């Protein structure tokens, strides 16, 4: 009886392995087209996650769950186990793994391997310890410095630009949001969750597909026409940029009884009425920085253009954010020098002198006395 069950289980694993393109992937590995992907057995991953124990859950959602795993060599990984659904065609799935395995960018979570002997393939990624950008912005009382926000924005933009331009087949992420940007031990941004991602065919700028994504971040043209393009990611990133400077969620309400508002629509309306300042996070509002914040608002509004051809590319967005950060650093240095002169002229000791509110935020943005959050083991990863 036990032998019969073992044979049945072995046959089922073999069937899933073939169904999920295991043989094709294995051939690619032998031909050295892929040399960075590890093929795990289901037993490997059960052991790593303590049989997918609930205490190991990093995040759970509509698409499945992500678990913290510890491999035999003590390497910590993130194990993404999707719910049963229509499995991607074997060739397409393998091609996606091949492309993802070739991505080598410091701001993109690295795919380490996969398990193909289950009905829906399990993916294994590098483990990122400090949770999501969403929780970093919205889940803490201590304000985050503008410098940190601009750096995270630039890093995320550079990752998306790399996906769009720097590999053999452009990849459209398809679900850019603050929950899909993780923060490593140094709070460096890492774009993750490629469940809705699509490889664009060569020489084609768009792909017809079933609409996927998240309410509040979805490109209106994609929603209407079902044409996924690189500019769909640009729109979604524009919403993330607004989250960073307003500390409002993509769909937000300002009162307990108020119906949810679209952050994208609200900022566009505020720009028309010249009321943008009222929407910005007060903790990053300081004297002399208004024009710089206005540049960030304008950039986000360009990303949110209704017509995709009017939106900048992700590489243009990344370049603009780099320029804004450079200007910001120079302004900070100038303001810091002015503050020191004021302290010297007044005869106050720097440790004893009181700071005005605007000077306090300047000090905070320069990295002084800004407390960094500690993420716990749970609710740090998103699954759709």
From TrEMBL:
<dbReference type="InterPro" id="IPR008271">
    <property type="entry name" value="Ser/Thr_kinase_AS"/>
</dbReference>
<keyword id="KW-0812">Transmembrane</keyword>
<keyword id="KW-0732">Signal</keyword>
<feature type="domain" description="Protein kinase">
    <location>
        <begin position="52"/>
        <end position="324"/>
    </location>
</feature>
<protein>
    <recommendedName>
        <fullName>Protein kinase domain-containing protein</fullName>
    </recommendedName>
</protein>
<keyword id="KW-0472">Membrane</keyword>
<dbReference type="InterPro" id="IPR017441">
    <property type="entry name" value="Protein_kinase_ATP_BS"/>
</dbReference>
<keyword id="KW-0067">ATP-binding</keyword>
<dbReference type="InterPro" id="IPR011009">
    <property type="entry name" value="Kinase-like_dom_sf"/>
</dbReference>
<comment type="similarity">
    <text>Belongs to the protein kinase superfamily.</text>
</comment>
<keyword id="KW-0547">Nucleotide-binding</keyword>
<keyword id="KW-0808">Transferase</keyword>
<keyword id="KW-1133">Transmembrane helix</keyword>
<keyword id="KW-0723">Serine/threonine-protein kinase</keyword>
<dbReference type="GO" id="GO:0005886">
    <property type="term" value="C:plasma membrane"/>
</dbReference>
<dbReference type="GO" id="GO:0004674">
    <property type="term" value="F:protein serine/threonine kinase activity"/>
</dbReference>
<feature type="binding site">
    <location>
        <position position="80"/>
    </location>
    <ligand>
        <name>ATP</name>
    </ligand>
</feature>
<keyword id="KW-0418">Kinase</keyword>
<dbReference type="InterPro" id="IPR000719">
    <property type="entry name" value="Prot_kinase_dom"/>
</dbReference>
<dbReference type="Pfam" id="PF00069">
    <property type="entry name" value="Pkinase"/>
</dbReference>
<dbReference type="GO" id="GO:0005524">
    <property type="term" value="F:ATP binding"/>
</dbReference>
<dbReference type="GO" id="GO:0007166">
    <property type="term" value="P:cell surface receptor signaling pathway"/>
</dbReference>
<dbReference type="InterPro" id="IPR045274">
    <property type="entry name" value="WAK-like"/>
</dbReference>
């Amino acid at each position: 009886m036990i032998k019969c069950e073992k044979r049945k289980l072995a046959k089922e694993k073999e069937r899933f392995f073939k169904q999920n393109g295991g043989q094709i992937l294995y051939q690619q590995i032998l031909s050295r087209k892929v040399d960075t992907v590890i093929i795990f057995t289901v037993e490997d991953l059960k052991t790593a996650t303590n049989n997918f124990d609930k205490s190991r859950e990093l995040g759970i959602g509509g698409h499945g769950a992500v678990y913290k795993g510890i491999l035999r060599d003590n390497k910590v990984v993130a194990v993404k186990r999707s719910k049963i659904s229509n499995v991607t065609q074997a060739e397409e799935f393998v091609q996606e793994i091949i492309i993802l395995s070739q991505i080598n960018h410091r701001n993109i979570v690295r795919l380490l391997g996969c398990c193909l002997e289950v009905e829906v393939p399990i993916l294994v990624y590098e483990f990122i310890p400090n949770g999501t950008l969403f929780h970093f912005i919205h889940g803490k009382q201590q304000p985050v410095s503008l410098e940190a926000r601009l750096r995270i924005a630039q890093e995320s933009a550079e990752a998306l630009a790399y996906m769009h331009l720097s590999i053999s087949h452009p990849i459209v992420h398809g679900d850019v949001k603050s929950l899909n940007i993780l923060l490593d031990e140094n709070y460096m941004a890492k774009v993750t969750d490629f469940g809705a991602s699509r490889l664009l065919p060569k020489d084609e700028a768009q792909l017809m597909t079933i609409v996927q994504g998240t309410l509040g971040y979805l490109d209106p043209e994609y929603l209407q026409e079902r044409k996924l393009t690189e500019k769909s990611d640009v729109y979604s990133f524009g919403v993330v940029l607004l989250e960073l400077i307003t500390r409002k969620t993509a769909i937000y309400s300002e009162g307990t009884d108020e119906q949810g508002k679209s952050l994208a629509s609200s900022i566009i309306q505020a720009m028309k009425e010249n009321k943008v300042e009222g929407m910005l996070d007060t903790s990053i509002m300081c004297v002399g920085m208004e024009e710089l914040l206005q540049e960030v608002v304008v950039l986000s509004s360009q990303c949110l253009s209704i017509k995709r051809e009017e939106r900048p590319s992700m590489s243009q967005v990344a370049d603009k954010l780099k320029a804004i950060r450079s200007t910001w650093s120079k302004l900070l240095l100038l303001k810091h020098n002015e503050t020191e002169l004021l302290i010297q002229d007044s005869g106050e000791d720097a440790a004893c002198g009181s700071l005005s509110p605007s000077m306090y935020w300047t000090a905070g943005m320069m990295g002084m006395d800004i407390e960094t959050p500690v993420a716990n083991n749970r609710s740090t990863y998103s699954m759709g």
